[in-house]
Amino acid sequence: MLRQLLVVGNWKMHGSRASVGALLADLVAAVPAVGPDVAICPTFVHLEQALQICDASPLAVGAQDCSHTNAGAYTGEVAAAMLADLGCHWVILGHSERRQYHGESDELVAAKVAAAVTAGLCPIVCVGETQEQREAGEAHSVVRSQLRGALQGQAQLTGLVVAYEPVWAIGTGLTATPQQAQDMHAFIRDCMSELDGVDATASRIVYGGSVKAGNAADLFAGPDIDGALVGGAALVANAFLAIINAAAA
Ligand code: PEP
C-alpha cells in the first residue's frame, strides 16, 4: 500500500505575528507543489494568520491541541469544532509535553480524539516511551497501551495519523536510529490492526524526535515510516524545507 508521506511542523509555543509571517512567506514560496503532504501547527493565536497566508498553497494548517468537549464553561479551552470552523485540517493530540506538563491521561486523549473526529478534524495522535521506560524494556508495552487508550472503541477514525515520538528524542538532539524507528512503527501498525475502526494499512505513522535534514531521508526509507512530526527544525524555513524535500525525493 502506497501511503503519501506527511511532514508536520509543530511550532509549540513559539512565534510572533512578524515571525509567523516571515516563516510562512518563505515556506509558501518554496514548498514543492508535488511532494509530501505538509502541515504546520502554530499556536492558537496564530492560526487565523497562518490560514490566510497558506490559503491556496500546498501547506495545510493544524492546531496543537483541542478540548475534549464541544462548548460550555471551560475557561481557556478551544473546541475542535471552532478549529474546523476556522479552516484547520489537523490537530495534534496527546503530545508528550501535554501528558507531562498538563497531566493528560490516555482517557482524556481518547475524548479529544473523539471530539476532533466528530468535528471533522484529522487527529495526529502522539505516543512514545520515556528513556526510563525504554531502559526497563517497557517501550513496546507503553506504546501499545497508549494506542489502545487513545483509539480503542472510537466510532470512526477518518484520516487518523499516529506519531511515534520517543520522549527521549524530543528536543534533545537524540534520534531513534532508522532501525529502532522502523521496528516501533511496524509494531504500532500491528497494534492498530487489532483495533476496530482503524485502517492500519492506510493510516500514516509518522516519526518525531529531533528530525532534521541530516537524518530525514534515512528515516523515510523505513517502509512503515510515513513522514515526520518536526519540532525545532520546523521553525527554520530552510531546515523544514530540507525535510520536506527529503520526503519528496
Ligand atoms: C515534537 O515535539 O513533536 C518534536 C518532535 O520536537 P523536536 O523535533 O524538536 O525533537
Please outline what is shown here.
This protein has 249 residues and is α/β, with parallel strands linked by helices. The chain has ten helices and eight strands. The chain has a single domain (10-165, 178-195, 222-237), classed as TIM Barrel (Alpha-Beta Barrel), CATH 3.20.20.
Please give a structural write-up.
With 249 residues, this protein is of the alpha/beta class. It has one domain: TIM Barrel (Alpha-Beta Barrel). Helix content is 41%, strand content 15%. It has an eight-stranded parallel β-barrel with strand order 1-2-3-4-5-6-7-8, surrounded by six helices. Helix 8 (178-193) crosses helix 9. It is globular, with a radius of gyration of 17 Å. The protein starts with 5 loop residues before the first strand and ends with a helix. The site of phosphoenolpyruvate has 13 residues, from strand 8. Phosphoenolpyruvate (PEP) binds at residues 10, 165, 170-171, 208-211, 229-233.
Task: Kindly list the characteristics that best describe this protein.
binds phosphoenolpyruvate, single chain, alpha/beta
